[in-house]
Amino acid sequence: MTKKITIAIDGFSSTGKSTIAKQLAKELGYIYVDTGAMYRAVTLYAMQHNYISENHFDASKLIHDLEAISLSFSFNETLGFAEMYLNGVNVEKEIRSIEVSKLVSKVSTVSGVRKKLVKEQQEMGINKGIVMDGRDIGTVVFPDAELKLFMTASADKRAKRRYKELLDRGDNVKYEDILQNVQERDHIDSTREDSPLVKAKDAIEFDNSDMGLKEQFERIMRMVHDKI
Ligand code: DC
Description:
Elements: E1 6-11, H1 17-28, E2 31-34, H2 35-48, E3 52-53, E4 56-57, H3 59-65, E5 71-76, E6 81-86, E7 89-90, H4 98-107, H5 111-124, E8 130-134, H6 137-141, E9 147-152, H7 155-168, H8 175-191, E10 204-207, H9 213-227
Parallel strand pairs: 1-8, 1-9, 2-8, 9-10
Antiparallel strand pairs: 3-4, 5-6, 6-7
Helix pairs in contact: 2-4, 2-5, 4-8, 7-8
Bound molecules: 2'-deoxycytidine-5'-monophosphate.
């Protein structure tokens, strides 16, 4: 029997982390966890309660409510991945909106929020056999993960990918807004004090600006086989 490992995938937004993570999880029969969805769901909660908007953020009210925020994933057979639920309600579509994208980096700077989510993520990975993607997986959540990947791609390539995704789902968005959002999030995510996005010392860097999905997947699967 092959041994089960933990695969940590970190990197800037829209580097295709989740696409590759989902493929790996499917191939290996592992659990896939999109931790960005968890930060997005907490952001949606803060928006619904008017704790945050473009020019105001009451982090103390959000911290006060943390215990009342219940996050869960439920696998959707048709879509082939687990959808995000916030207090029992499916929020998968709402958390991907540009409004949430604009505010999520601010919410992710709050240590209390990170503490809660990191704890939940560590519990999900206790039995290994997991692929988790985010910003601090290889550094904070699973520092002992057997395989750590750090994904990068140019901001322009990433904004184009994200723009296409949003257009495909029928959102009315401008490319310039998406590029600006990608650059702003890069800045906040990599300069925040608590768990900034940095490459773990033992992570393998992967620039996929000019690499197709198939090639990426095959290369990473070879790394996985070396570990198991
Ligand atoms: O992966 P994503 O773009 O959906 O993540 C949304 C935001 O959540 C991202 O801008 C930073 C934050 N995040 C984080 O701080 N730590 C994680 N492990 C995952 C996401």
